Amino acid sequence: MSRFKKFRSLRDLLKRVDEYLKSFEEDEAIPTIEGLALFVGCTRDNIYQLERKYPKLKSKLDILRDLQTKRLITRGLLKKYDSRIVRLLLSTHGYVEKKEVEYTEKPYISLEDEGEN
C-alpha cells in the first residue's frame, strides 16, 4: 500500500509542501526532497512519482531546488558551509568546476612515416 494515500487531495499535498518550505530551517541547513518526504510522511520515491504526474507539484519542487542552490551559493561564499560540500551539492544542480588546460607541446611526428614517402 502506498504511503502517499494519506493525502486527501493534491491541494493538501501542495499545502504541506508550502509548510515545509517555510519551516525547514528548524531542522535542516537546506531544504531537501528527502526532508520534504519525511515531513509529509512518504518516501522520496513517492515524491518523485508524484512530481512526474502533477505539474503543480513539479513547480513547487523547482522552487525547493532553487532555494537549495541559492542557500548553497550564499552560505558557501560566506564560508558558513564547507566549500567541498557546496561543490558536491551544486554539481547535482548542473554547476561544474571547469579548469582550462592549454596544450603547449608540438605534435609528435613519426620519423618512420616520413621515410616512406
Overview in brief:
This protein is mostly helical and 117 residues long. Helix content is 59%, strand content 0%. The longest helix is centred in the middle third of the chain and has 23 residues, at 55-77.
Could you name the key traits of this structure?
mainly alpha, 6 helices, elongated
Catalogue the unreliable spans.
none
pLDDT averaged residue by residue: 82
The end-to-end span amounts to: 76 Å
Number of β-strand runs: 0
Radius of gyration: 24 Å
Structural class estimated from helices and strands: mainly alpha
Query: What coarse outline follows from CA principal-axis ratios?
Result: elongated
What percent strand? Answer: under 5%
> How can the largest sheet be summarized?
none
Describe this structure in words.
There is one protein chain. By secondary structure, the protein is an all-alpha fold. The chain has one domain (3-115). It is built from six helices and no strands. The longest helix has 23 residues, at 55-77. It is elongated. The model has no long low-confidence stretch (mean pLDDT 82).
Helices and strands in order, then pairings?
Layout (H helix, E strand, L loop, with lengths): L9 H14 L9 H8 L3 H10 L1 H23 L5 H9 L19 H5 L2
